[in-house]
Structures are given as structure tokens and as C-alpha cells.
Automatic annotation (TrEMBL):
It comes from the Bacteria. This is Polymerase/histidinol phosphatase N-terminal domain-containing protein. InterPro entries: PHP_dom (IPR004013), PHP_domain (IPR052018), Pol/His_phosphatase_N (IPR003141), Pol/histidinol_Pase-like (IPR016195). CDD domains: PHP_HisPPase_AMP. GO terms for molecular function: 5'-3' DNA exonuclease activity; 5'-3' RNA exonuclease activity. Residues 3-66 form the Polymerase/histidinol phosphatase N-terminal domain. Pfam families: PHP. SMART domains: POLIIIAc.
Amino acid sequence: MTIDLHTHSTASDGTTPPAELPRLAAEAGLTVLALTDHDTFAGLSTASAVASDVEIVPGVEISCRLDEFEVHLLGLFADPLSVPLAAELELIRTDRVRRGVRMVERCRELGAPITLAQVEAIAAGAPLGRPHIAAALAAVGITDAFTADWIADGGRADVPKHVLSTVEAIALVRAAGGVAVLAHPRSVKRRAAVTDAQLAALAAAGLAGIEVDHPEQPPEVRERLREVAADLGLLATGSSDFHGDRKPVRLGECTTSPEVFAALRESAVSVS
């Protein structure tokens, strides 16, 4: 088995339609693919309906708050029809649109010649997100969008958003019959690394695993995360975080072992 547990489609901020992902996964040699769009299961039914030998795992990537920073939580095997989870995801998406509109306004106030219509065209029906605004900024020559000058966390054009605490998100995933895995906890592109103490607290709250092998985490970081996972009894996963053409990452660039995948599936069954 070759397993990639973190991918995105045009249902959020990826550039690949959900119906194309199973074919691309098969071409990449994958046998299991989790579709984990940001705060939505919208692409899942389309991807799952494609005739393919690739198993499609239901998933979602939830934006949450850990102390003063934002982190991302993967909810794998969660039931998309779970009413509490679906309601919270709807609230997050609705607020994302409000935030996106205001961020475009702030960018314009700061002199960026972009429009909401341009950003909506880039989003192509997906909930507005910062990558769509960044793409619009890049189109007018502003290539440093994710900095304090523009739309980085706390940047001049950033806007606060509705966000769950990570502990609340873990509880929602578990109540929906899923398992919670913390995505890229020490990515070199994140504003702050998740500490050992924070990981221990999340493990006590029901976290099942952490994403260890990830393109944005160098080898020495992965080695340390693997040690922490072992100490805390957490499963160590690997994933590409594929976004299509939006990131220079290929499907299956990092993968999860069959043994860890089996343990995740078993944990999901045990909490459902």
C-alpha cells in the first residue's frame, strides 16, 4: 500500500478538481488517498464516485487556534453527515467569506489594484481563502503576499476570523467517528512551531497522531517529531499536502506506512 493522507482539491484551495484526484493518485502509484479540503467535505462525494482502485478516505482539514496561533487539524474517517461537525464547518466557511471580502478591501486600501471579482474568479466557487487573495496579488506583481506587509497572520491586511480551539476541533472529529491528526506541526512556513508541551496537552485531549513526514518539515525536524510521537503514544503519519499547481509538491511525495494507516482506521472504528 502507498498512502497519502493530506490532499486538496478545487473544493477548497487546490487547483485539481475532485474527480481528477483518483486518476492522478493512481498514476502516482497510490493505493489510498485522503481528501482533506479546508473546512469542507464538498469534494468527497465526487472523488469517491470515480471508478478507481484508489481508496478514498473521507477527511477534512480544520483551521483551529492553539494558544495564540493558528494550526491545522486533519479529521480522518470523520462522518461528513455528523450534524455538530457540519454545523461548525459551515460557520467557519461563512466567516471565511466575510474575512476574505474585508481582506480584499484592506489590500485595496493599501494600494493593491485587485478586486473582489478577480479573487472570486480565482476561487472558482470554493470558499474564499488567503491563497486566492495571494494569487490575485501575484497577478498584479505583488509576490510577497504572505508577509507582514500583506496577508500573513497579523499582517497589515489580515482580518481575524471565527476559529475553534484545537481541543474543541479534536472533540468534534472524535464525536463524528473520526481520528484527529495534527497537520505539519513544525512546518518551516508556519508562524510558530508547536512545542513538545503543546503536543502532550493535545495527546491528552484525544489527538491520535501528528504529521511527521511533510514536504515543509526538514529531516532533523521529522526525526524529533518521530521521537515525540513515540514518547506520547501518537501515530506518526506522512502526507504530501498536495494542492495541485498551487504548490511545488507531487502526490505521494511523503506517505504514511500501512501499519500506521491500519491503526488510524482501527482508532476511528473504536470511537465511532
